[in-house]
Protein backbone atom coordinates (compact mmCIF):
# COMPACT_ATOMS: atom_id res chain seq x y z
CA UNK A 1 0.00 0.00 0.00
CA UNK A 2 1.33 3.46 -0.95
CA UNK A 3 0.95 6.38 1.44
CA UNK A 4 -0.91 9.06 -0.57
CA UNK A 5 0.76 11.85 1.39
CA UNK A 6 4.38 10.84 0.95
CA UNK A 7 4.20 8.57 -2.08
CA UNK A 8 6.18 5.99 -0.12
CA UNK A 9 5.22 2.41 0.60
CA UNK A 10 3.15 2.34 3.80
CA UNK A 11 4.52 0.38 6.72
CA UNK A 12 2.12 -1.90 8.59
CA UNK A 13 2.69 -3.20 12.12
CA UNK A 14 1.52 -6.12 14.21
CA UNK A 15 1.85 -5.86 17.98
CA UNK A 16 1.04 -9.00 19.94
CA UNK A 17 -0.33 -8.56 23.43
CA UNK A 18 -1.38 -5.04 22.55
CA UNK A 19 -4.20 -4.85 25.07
CA UNK A 20 -1.99 -4.11 28.09
CA UNK A 21 1.46 -3.34 29.44
CA UNK A 22 4.41 -2.99 27.10
CA UNK A 23 2.36 -4.16 24.12
CA UNK A 24 -0.23 -1.46 24.68
CA UNK A 25 2.46 1.23 24.92
CA UNK A 26 4.07 -0.05 21.71
CA UNK A 27 0.77 -0.13 19.81
CA UNK A 28 -0.11 3.42 20.87
CA UNK A 29 3.35 4.75 19.99
CA UNK A 30 3.52 3.06 16.61
CA UNK A 31 0.05 4.28 15.68
CA UNK A 32 0.96 7.81 16.78
CA UNK A 33 3.61 8.05 14.04
CA UNK A 34 1.12 7.11 11.35
CA UNK A 35 1.71 3.37 11.03
CA UNK A 36 -1.49 1.28 11.03
CA UNK A 37 -1.45 -1.38 13.74
CA UNK A 38 -3.03 -4.81 14.03
CA UNK A 39 -2.89 -5.59 17.74
CA UNK A 40 -3.72 -8.89 19.33
CA UNK A 41 -5.41 -9.80 22.56
CA UNK A 42 -6.06 -13.18 24.10
CA UNK A 43 -9.12 -12.74 26.33
CA UNK A 44 -9.63 -9.11 27.37
CA UNK A 45 -11.62 -7.72 24.47
CA UNK A 46 -12.68 -4.64 26.43
CA UNK A 47 -9.06 -3.67 27.08
CA UNK A 48 -8.20 -4.18 23.42
CA UNK A 49 -11.13 -2.05 22.30
CA UNK A 50 -10.07 0.71 24.68
CA UNK A 51 -6.58 0.78 23.14
CA UNK A 52 -8.13 0.80 19.69
CA UNK A 53 -10.36 3.74 20.66
CA UNK A 54 -7.29 5.68 21.82
CA UNK A 55 -5.57 5.01 18.51
CA UNK A 56 -8.57 6.16 16.51
CA UNK A 57 -9.20 9.24 18.65
CA UNK A 58 -5.61 10.31 17.96
CA UNK A 59 -6.19 9.94 14.22
CA UNK A 60 -4.48 6.59 13.81
CA UNK A 61 -5.68 3.35 12.29
CA UNK A 62 -5.85 -0.03 13.91
CA UNK A 63 -7.67 -3.30 14.35
CA UNK A 64 -7.86 -5.65 17.33
CA UNK A 65 -7.67 -9.37 16.57
CA UNK A 66 -8.28 -12.11 19.15
CA UNK A 67 -5.27 -14.39 18.75
CA UNK A 68 -3.60 -17.24 20.59
CA UNK A 69 -0.06 -16.73 19.31
CA UNK A 70 0.87 -20.30 20.23
CA UNK A 71 -1.56 -21.59 17.59
CA UNK A 72 -0.14 -21.76 14.07
CA UNK A 73 -3.47 -21.29 12.31
CA UNK A 74 -4.40 -18.37 14.56
CA UNK A 75 -1.15 -16.62 13.61
CA UNK A 76 -1.86 -17.26 9.92
CA UNK A 77 -5.34 -15.78 10.34
CA UNK A 78 -3.91 -12.74 12.16
CA UNK A 79 -1.52 -11.91 9.33
CA UNK A 80 -4.15 -12.53 6.68
CA UNK A 81 -6.50 -10.12 8.45
CA UNK A 82 -3.78 -7.46 8.76
CA UNK A 83 -2.77 -7.86 5.12
CA UNK A 84 -6.36 -7.65 3.89
CA UNK A 85 -6.96 -4.52 5.94
CA UNK A 86 -3.69 -2.60 5.59
CA UNK A 87 -1.22 -4.42 3.34
CA UNK A 88 2.03 -6.35 3.84
CA UNK A 89 3.19 -6.36 7.45
CA UNK A 90 6.78 -5.12 7.80
CA UNK A 91 6.87 -4.19 11.49
CA UNK A 92 6.41 -6.71 14.28
CA UNK A 93 6.54 -6.35 18.07
CA UNK A 94 6.22 -9.63 19.97
CA UNK A 95 4.97 -8.65 23.41
CA UNK A 96 2.36 -11.33 24.18
CA UNK A 97 3.38 -13.80 26.84
CA UNK A 98 2.74 -15.38 30.21
CA UNK A 99 4.52 -14.80 33.51
CA UNK A 100 6.46 -17.42 35.45
CA UNK A 101 4.38 -19.86 37.44
CA UNK A 102 6.45 -19.85 40.62
CA UNK A 103 6.26 -23.65 40.66
CA UNK A 104 9.44 -25.55 41.49
CA UNK A 105 10.78 -28.14 39.06
CA UNK A 106 9.74 -31.26 40.98
CA UNK A 107 6.15 -30.04 41.20
CA UNK A 108 5.79 -28.65 37.70
CA UNK A 109 3.37 -30.46 35.43
CA UNK A 110 4.37 -30.96 31.82
CA UNK A 111 1.24 -29.07 30.80
CA UNK A 112 2.44 -25.96 32.68
CA UNK A 113 5.91 -26.03 31.14
CA UNK A 114 4.41 -26.62 27.71
CA UNK A 115 1.86 -23.81 28.13
CA UNK A 116 4.52 -21.25 28.99
CA UNK A 117 6.94 -22.39 26.31
CA UNK A 118 4.26 -22.20 23.63
CA UNK A 119 3.13 -18.71 24.60
CA UNK A 120 6.55 -17.12 25.19
CA UNK A 121 8.74 -18.94 22.64
CA UNK A 122 6.59 -20.69 20.04
CA UNK A 123 4.51 -17.53 19.64
CA UNK A 124 7.41 -15.31 18.53
CA UNK A 125 8.74 -18.11 16.33
CA UNK A 126 5.41 -18.41 14.54
CA UNK A 127 4.87 -14.67 14.06
CA UNK A 128 8.44 -14.06 12.91
CA UNK A 129 8.28 -16.94 10.44
CA UNK A 130 4.98 -15.78 8.98
CA UNK A 131 6.15 -12.19 8.53
CA UNK A 132 9.49 -13.18 7.02
CA UNK A 133 7.81 -15.41 4.45
CA UNK A 134 5.55 -12.56 3.33
CA UNK A 135 8.41 -10.04 3.23
CA UNK A 136 10.61 -12.33 1.17
CA UNK A 137 7.76 -12.95 -1.27
CA UNK A 138 7.27 -9.18 -1.58
CA UNK A 139 10.99 -8.46 -1.84
CA UNK A 140 10.87 -6.11 1.12
CA UNK A 141 12.78 -5.49 4.32
CA UNK A 142 11.32 -5.02 7.77
CA UNK A 143 11.80 -4.74 11.51
CA UNK A 144 11.16 -7.19 14.35
CA UNK A 145 11.36 -6.45 18.07
CA UNK A 146 11.01 -9.33 20.52
CA UNK A 147 10.18 -8.40 24.09
CA UNK A 148 12.05 -10.79 26.35
CA UNK A 149 12.95 -10.28 30.01
CA UNK A 150 15.89 -9.77 32.32
CA UNK A 151 15.18 -13.37 33.31
CA UNK A 152 16.63 -14.56 30.02
CA UNK A 153 19.95 -14.22 31.84
CA UNK A 154 18.99 -13.65 35.50
CA UNK A 155 17.20 -16.84 36.56
CA UNK A 156 14.93 -17.06 39.55
CA UNK A 157 13.79 -20.07 41.57
CA UNK A 158 10.29 -21.03 40.51
CA UNK A 159 10.93 -19.80 37.00
CA UNK A 160 11.97 -22.98 35.19
CA UNK A 161 9.19 -22.44 32.64
CA UNK A 162 9.60 -18.68 32.13
CA UNK A 163 13.39 -18.51 32.32
CA UNK A 164 13.77 -21.34 29.82
CA UNK A 165 11.36 -19.69 27.40
CA UNK A 166 13.00 -16.28 27.65
CA UNK A 167 16.48 -17.77 27.30
CA UNK A 168 15.27 -19.50 24.16
CA UNK A 169 13.76 -16.25 22.89
CA UNK A 170 17.08 -14.47 23.35
CA UNK A 171 18.82 -17.03 21.17
CA UNK A 172 15.99 -17.07 18.64
CA UNK A 173 16.35 -13.29 18.35
CA UNK A 174 20.14 -13.39 18.00
CA UNK A 175 19.97 -16.14 15.38
CA UNK A 176 17.32 -14.34 13.35
CA UNK A 177 19.34 -11.12 13.47
CA UNK A 178 22.20 -12.92 11.71
CA UNK A 179 20.01 -14.90 9.36
CA UNK A 180 17.80 -12.03 8.24
CA UNK A 181 20.26 -9.12 8.04
CA UNK A 182 21.16 -9.94 4.40
CA UNK A 183 17.44 -9.73 3.60
CA UNK A 184 17.22 -6.22 5.12
CA UNK A 185 15.13 -7.44 8.05
CA UNK A 186 16.47 -6.11 11.34
CA UNK A 187 15.77 -8.13 14.49
CA UNK A 188 16.24 -6.77 17.99
CA UNK A 189 15.44 -7.96 21.48
CA UNK A 190 14.43 -5.91 24.51
CA UNK A 191 14.99 -7.57 27.89
CA UNK A 192 13.51 -5.25 30.54
CA UNK A 193 13.55 -5.63 34.27
CA UNK A 194 10.31 -5.37 36.21
CA UNK A 195 7.84 -3.03 34.55
CA UNK A 196 4.74 -2.20 36.60
CA UNK A 197 2.24 -3.68 34.17
CA UNK A 198 -0.75 -5.85 35.12
CA UNK A 199 1.54 -8.90 34.89
CA UNK A 200 3.45 -7.56 37.89
CA UNK A 201 0.46 -6.25 39.84
CA UNK A 202 1.62 -8.10 42.96
CA UNK A 203 4.56 -5.70 43.19
CA UNK A 204 2.06 -2.91 43.75
CA UNK A 205 -0.25 -4.91 46.00
CA UNK A 206 2.51 -6.09 48.38
CA UNK A 207 4.62 -3.19 49.69
CA UNK A 208 7.05 -5.63 51.37
Describe it.
This protein has a single domain, classed as Rossmann fold. The protein is built from six helices and six strands. With 208 residues, it is α/β, with parallel strands linked by helices. It is globular, with a radius of gyration of 17 Å. Helix 4 (110-138) runs parallel beside helix 5.
Q: Work out the helix count.
A: 6
Question: Can you tell me the CATH superfamily?
Answer: NAD(P)-binding Rossmann-like Domain
Low-confidence stretches: none
How much helix, percentage-wise, in residues?
Answer: 40-55%
- Please give the number of β-strands: 6
State the distance separating the first and last CA atoms.
52 Å
Label the structural class. alpha/beta
Order of SSEs:
EHEHEHEHEHEH
Q: Characterize the main sheet.
A: 6 strands, parallel
Q: How many distinct folded domains?
A: 1
At CATH level 2, the architecture is 3-Layer(aba) Sandwich
Report the C-alpha radius of gyration, rounded: 17 Å
Name of the CATH first level: Alpha Beta
Strand content: 5-15%
Amino acid sequence: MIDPNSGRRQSVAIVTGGESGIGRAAALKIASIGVPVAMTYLRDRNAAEWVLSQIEQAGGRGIAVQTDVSDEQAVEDLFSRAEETFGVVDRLVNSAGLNMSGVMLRDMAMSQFDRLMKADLYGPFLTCRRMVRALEDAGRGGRIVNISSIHERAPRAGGVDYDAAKGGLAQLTATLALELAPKHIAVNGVAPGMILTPMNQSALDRPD
